Amino acid sequence: TIWGAMTSHTNGVLIASDFDTLDELEKFTELAAADAAFASVRRAVREQMVYDSATVSIHRHAYHSEGLISSEEATAPRRFMRTLTGDVQPGRQREFVLSISQALEYQKQRGIDATTSVWSSMTGATNGVAIVGEFDTLGELEQFDELAAQDQEFGRLRRATRESMVFQTSQVQIFRSFL
């Protein structure tokens, strides 16, 4: 799936590849090294990018707002995506997951239709997370932002999540689906 940034650097893209197992990821990596045609396609993509600013990270599906769900369902794209990335403070993973689940339940009760998942980093800082909220319309995303700005209880629940994170590492971005 290819997502285009709507905030920060608006020429930014996020290219997400979804694998069920580490073996599948390994096969993809081997294909990129062994298959000249595939390598040339990837090279053509990179030539269109500011490659010095490109980063690759691998995340594991850790939590989903709908409960137990496959990674395919978790990554079935909607039209807009809000991501909060950062690091969870050491020893506070349980508080983090609890605070996320409480905030999601609260927003669901208020009619916010978002699919939210948490992805844990397997590369780089292993306490890194990406909280991904997906929306079908900008109106739903605006409704989320309004609730966050105006509802004190929702603000308290979101603050609990941020307090379990190393806040200086946090970054929020909004993307729209290209494919």
Main sheet record: 7 strands, antiparallel
Number of H/I helices: 6
DSSP strand count:
7
What is the multimeric organization of the chains shown?
Answer: single chain
Order of helices and strands: EEHHEHEHEEHHE
What is the helical fraction, as a range of percent? 25-40%
* Average pLDDT number: 82
Strand order of the largest sheet: 2-1-7-4-6-5-3
The span between the termini is 6 Å
The SS-based structural class is: alpha+beta
Cα radius of gyration in angstroms: 17 Å
In terms of DSSP E residues, the strand content is 25-35%
Q: Give the overall shape.
A: globular
Which residue ranges are poorly predicted, with pLDDT under 50 across at least 5 consecutive positions? none
Question: Would you kindly provide a written description of the structure presented here, covering whatever features stand out?
Answer:
With 179 residues, this protein is of the alpha+beta class. The chain has helices spanning 22-34, 36-47, 71-74, 93-109, 138-150, 152-163, and strands at 2-5, 13-15, 59-64, 80-88, 115-121, 128-135, 165-177. The mean pLDDT is 82.
Keywords:
seven-stranded antiparallel β-sheet, alpha+beta, 179 residues, single chain, 6 helices
Helix/strand layout:
Blueprint: E1 2-5, E2 13-15, H1 22-34, H2 36-47, E3 59-64, H3 71-74, E4 80-88, H4 93-109, E5 115-121, E6 128-135, H5 138-150, H6 152-163, E7 165-177
Offer a quick outline of the entry:
With 179 residues, this protein is α+β, with helices and mostly antiparallel strands. Helices cover 40% and strands 28% of the residues.
